[in-house]
Amino acid sequence: MLLAWITPLVAQTPGGCNTPVSQRTSEVGCYFTASEDLGVIPDKGVFWHLYNYPTRAAAEAAKGPHGTVTESFGRFWLYSIADERWRPLTGERVAVIGPLPVIAGKQYTARYMEAVFTPGMHGLTHQHSGPEAWYVLSGAQCLETSEGIIVARAGEGAVVREGPAMRIQSIGNETRRSVLLVLHDTSRPWVVYDSSWSPKGSCPK
Fold this sequence. Notes:
By secondary structure, this protein is mostly beta strands. It has a single domain (3-22, 31-194), classed as Jelly Rolls, CATH 2.60.120.10. The chain has helices spanning 7-12, 56-62; strands at 3-4, 29-40, 46-53, 67-72, 75-83, 92-97, 107-117, 126-127, 132-138, 140-145, 148-153, 157-160, 166-171, 176-185, 192-194. The strands form four sheets. A five-stranded antiparallel beta sheet has the order 2-7-14-9-12, with no helix packed on it. The radius of gyration is 16 Å and the shape is globular.
């Protein structure tokens, strides 16, 4: 098995999901927005809550435990990892995505990113040391894994568990814009790249 760090994706996708969004040099690509060490979190009923606010200060004022404030696509976001019933006192709810499959006793870090893929664009095959989740703002995406495909369209979320090799791509005729979370094992890399598995091309066009 050949595993590599971020270098292969940088050549494939601008930003490589590692460049801070404040340093982006292209509209297209995958960029890092924030991370938060969460420690040990409950192993059942954990969700990703996404809320919008008119200002960063308003989002910060609403933030509770396991909350992170970011700016993506001209919006101020409050992201929180909490049970399904959690609600902030203020804010416009965008989505609640989950449950996120986590393991009891493991310490997690929430890594948040944003991505813009033109139609047909895809990343490289990779794996994560924890679940990954998306919220799609425009366009559509297809995640092909060694276990099948997961499709999400504008206004929808998606989740994939830790473990399987995967490749994400934009499908349809519209540019895909999404915000994303990798809830990874704090003691392990958030991503590794794997050339031992090749997608079958099962995603729709």
